[in-house]
Amino acid sequence: MMKSLIAFNPFFRQHAPASPFRVMVRKEVGDHIRSWRFIIMLVLILLTFIGAMYVSLSNIRKAATNLNDPDRIFVYLKLLTTSDNTLPTFHIFISFLGPLLGIALGFDAINAEKNNGTLIRLMAQPVYRDNLLLAKFYAALKVIGTLFFSLVLLMIGGGMIITGAPLEASELFRILAFAVLSVIYVGFWLSLAITLSVKFRHAATSALTAIGIWLFFTIFYQIIVNMIMNAILPDPAYLQQDSIIAYNNLVLSLLRVAPSQLYTDAATTLLMPSVRSLGPLTMEQMAGAIPAPLPLKESLMIVWPQVTGLLAATTACFALAYFLFMRREIRT
Amino acid sequence: MENPIIQLNGLSKHYGSKKAVENLSLKINKGEIFGLLGPNGAGKTTTILMMLGLSEPTSGEALVCGINATNNPIAVKRKVGYMPDNVGFYDNMTALENLMYIGRLSGIPEEKIAVKARETMELVGLGDELYKKTGAYSRGMKQRLALADLLIREPEVMILDEPTLGIDPAGIKEFLVLIRQLSRQQGLTVLLSSHHLHQMQQICDRVGIFVEGQLLMEGNIDTLSGNLFGKESYVIQVTVREPLANAQALQQELQQLEHVNKAATSEYGVELSCSQDITPDIVRFFVHKGLNVTGVQKKEYGLDEIYQRFFENNAKKHVQ
């Protein structure tokens, strides 16, 4: 009776000890923000952010007055997507650096604890085993989330001061959705890295494997898909238009196995409201369409499969980490 | 009073075809210091992990404070403090921070934690090293910090896996005295595992000898040596200055004495196995005979001999 009173009375609650999960998250967040690797990644991302912003700010006048562009009214979205081809835009940078950030925060999550002998020390405390895994994931995600939201909010604030343009509500939501998407994307690589850290005994092995997977998907995967498709596909000159489209869709679907492709697709759609489809459109579908920006809801509908794909991949990796970790003998 | 706080019933753990622990049954009473003794790889750590619910037994059950460790590990871990054999700390944190982290995880209220951590550090003798990074700690200091880790949670049962590993002899003594003191003062039940016999002899109320996953024998050291060596519990060696002239006759005569089971003579001495301690009688006998005794040694069976005997038996079993 007394116990339940204490648990549910907000007056008493502040005296109750924090749950082990929250204690772990607090420590993990502290560890991350003090660690060198996070500081290095932070500097790297900040530099690309500043570089991308510098390039887009110097071209913003041209972009915002380009009458052929239906997106010209969204100044803040233009800030994120404009480039004069000397530097890639920010979301392209993130599609490269995001994985590295996720891997850096997760590759030694479990195996370092195990090798240092701290894992068994933690497990001897009255805490559930999954709390540790969840805390590792959640703490890193919290740090990443804070990083991305501060970056985009900084961008909006800076843009306001420099351009003086008013911020549309739909623009703000698109940018926030972009930040959420980026967090999910990095979250995927994080959960992959944590899974590998459970699987492999040495931190170096898990880091190298994670980087290997990342390189495979960013560089080799597209080459391999294109090579195979070129070998298999008949000459397009002899094909009907709808079968060309069908083949094209097939190639695109295969390319979308790569998480970076999903991320770039989704980010492009969110940041460029005039993007109507991520696949090829037929002339009939295009007939009567006015090149105008889509409402936010429509853009979200287009990226929904991509977001679901990323979330599913993240969940699958994390579930695998759980499966491996819960059955693991923890003695060294 | 029979009040088992740790009770193992037919506990077994198999890794594939390898039997790490085989049908282990054991009772440890409250307030007792129990030593689990065995060579490396005997299954000591596996047994301990099963008691904590960190490893699933293949069959049997482990009850700690009346709670089944496999089904309800959290409740068991709340009552049991465990010190692993090669404990590690977060090297980038100070000792106090490390200790406070464990304190928080075990649910000590935030406002009490700093005071309590400090007190515990004083108790284990690390009062001057509170703010040192654990990376700079020596092995012995880490071991003490691990003990503090355990004490801050005020457990009912302490399980120490090879607690003396890697500490220098003086440190070991201090450490064991500390553990014994704590156990006596606070009525803690202590389970130690080790392969160091002498240390166990110093501190344990009872020991269990554990070889190849089986508990061969348990009891206090006297009973153990009695069981093992049967009647020949006392061995007395007498050395003389001149070579024995009439060894055969002497041997005969010695064997006539009461309590002597066996006498063996060599050129300069006699070795007697007795069922009771009759050293004074033996010395008197020698003096009577006019032999110049240069030394009398009474051999008591310590764990060393017990251990040795086990390995001999074991080795024999293997050969067969």
Outline of the structure:
The complex is a heterodimer of chains A (332) and B (320). Chain A is mainly alpha-helical and 332 residues long. Chain A is 75% helix and 0% strand.
Structure, explained:
The complex is a heterodimer of chains A (332) and B (320). Chain A is mainly alpha-helical and 332 residues long. Chain A has one domain (16-281, 290-326). Chain A contains 15 helices and no strands. In chain A, helix 3 (20-34) packs across helix 9 and helix 6 crosses helix 13. The model of chain A is unreliable at 1-8 (pLDDT under 50). Chain B folds into 2 domains: 4-219, Rossmann fold (3-Layer(aba) Sandwich); 234-300, Alpha-L RNA-binding motif (Alpha-Beta Plaits, 2-Layer Sandwich). Chain B is elongated, with a radius of gyration of 25 Å. By secondary structure, chain B is α/β, with parallel strands linked by helices. In chain B, helix 3 (95-105) packs across helix 4. The A-B interface holds A 15-18, 20, 23-24, 27, 31, 34, 116-118, 120-128, 329-332 and B 45-46, 49, 52, 54-55, 74-75, 77-78, 81-82, 84, 86-92, 101-102, 104-111, 146, 149, 153.
Question: Main traits of this protein?
Answer:
heterodimer, A: 332 residues, mainly alpha, globular, B: 320 residues, alpha/beta, Rossmann fold, Alpha-Beta Plaits, 2 domains, 6-stranded mixed β-sheet, 4-stranded antiparallel β-sheet, 11 helices, 14 strands, 28% strand
Which CATH architecture of the largest domain in chain B would you pick?
Answer: 3-Layer(aba) Sandwich
Largest sheet of chain B: 6 strands, mixed
Largest interface: A-B, 26 and 33 residues
Indicate the CATH class of the largest domain in chain B: Alpha Beta
Instruction: Provide the structure class of chain A.
Output: mainly alpha
The count of helical stretches of chain B stands at 11
Rg of chain A over CA atoms, rounded to whole Å, is 23 Å
